[in-house]
Write a structure and sequence with these properties.
By secondary structure, the protein is an alpha+beta fold. The chain has five helices and 13 strands. The protein has a single domain, classed as Alpha-Beta Complex (Ribosomal Protein L22, Chain A), CATH 3.90.470. Helices cover 28% and strands 32% of the residues. The protein has a six-stranded mixed sheet with strand order 6-10-9-13-8-7. A five-stranded mixed sheet has the order 4-5-1-11-12, with helices on one face. Helix 4 packs antiparallel against helix 5. One of its GO terms (cellular component) is cytosol.
Length: 232
């Protein structure tokens, strides 16, 4: 798998847990119902994707990096990133290197300008305020940042590690990374990806809950942000 693959699904899809190890299902038993649904759905989707792309009968062993990012113990398997927002679930697979993805339900957010002023750079905030739909611009910037942080194994508390220049479609970061960011406004959601340089727009698939298959989707026009090196 030389390119990235993006699999989309819904949290309430009727996922089979048959490909999940028994100890993984048991681990989720004590979670609250909402968290358990999210946790199991993400791993079931990952298991189905690995069955299709790599022939794995059950979900392979997962480990956690020092930064808290899950990865496969078998290094021949692809890197992955799971994300969900409201009822939307997405999985990004990339064999070329570390990747990160984020999906956000486009929705009103109280005090979003206060959040943007605190979390974004002056350049980003000024650009946001100049847009015809500033709240849409907010979700674009937020989603791009989240995708990069997930690629790095970071958290939302490290928003100051990346600075976007939306006018130039570029970004700087700490550390500097050989990464390209992609975003797409997809109906009611915003999607963003952080992919290794040289990996272009993803192949897209939608999970069919009735059949358990992945349906190839028509290619769409993603927009790219290129790295300009170290954040200063």
């Amino acid at each position: 798998m030389n390119s990235a693959r993006l699999m989309t699904a819904s949290l309430d899809d009727n996922f089979s847990l048959a490909r999940l190890p028994a100890e993984m299902i048991a681990k989720s038993a004590g979670m609250n119902p909402t968290r358990r649904q999210q946790w199991r759905a993400g791993r079931a989707l990952l298991a189905e994707a690995l069955a299709v792309s790599c022939g794995c009968e059950t979900l392979p062993e997962l480990q956690i990096s020092a930064q808290g990012k899950p990865f496969f113990a078998d290094t021949s398997l692809p890197h992955f990133s799971l994300s969900h927002s409201k009822n939307h679930l997405q999985l990004l697979l990339c064999a070329a290197g570390e990747a990160g993805g984020d999906v956000e339900q486009i929705r009103p957010r109280a005090h979003y300008l206060d959040v943007a002023r605190e979390a974004f750079s002056d350049t980003e905030f000024q650009w946001l305020m100049e847009q015809a739909e500033p709240q849409m611009a907010f979700w674009q910037l937020w989603c791009l940042r989240e995708a990069w942080l997930k690629q790095q194994g970071g958290s939302v508390w490290q928003m100051d590690k990346i600075c976007l220049n939306p006018a130039l479609k570029s970004f700087t970061s700490e550390p500097a990374t050989d990464t390209q960011l992609w975003y797409l406004a997809d109906g009611s959601v915003m999607r963003a990806l952080a992919l290794p340089a040289g990996v272009s727009e993803p192949e897209e698939y939608a999970f069919n809950a009735a059949s358990g298959d992945f349906i190839a989707q028509a290619s769409r026009q993603w927009s790219a942000f290129s790295s300009r090196g170290l954040l200063r």
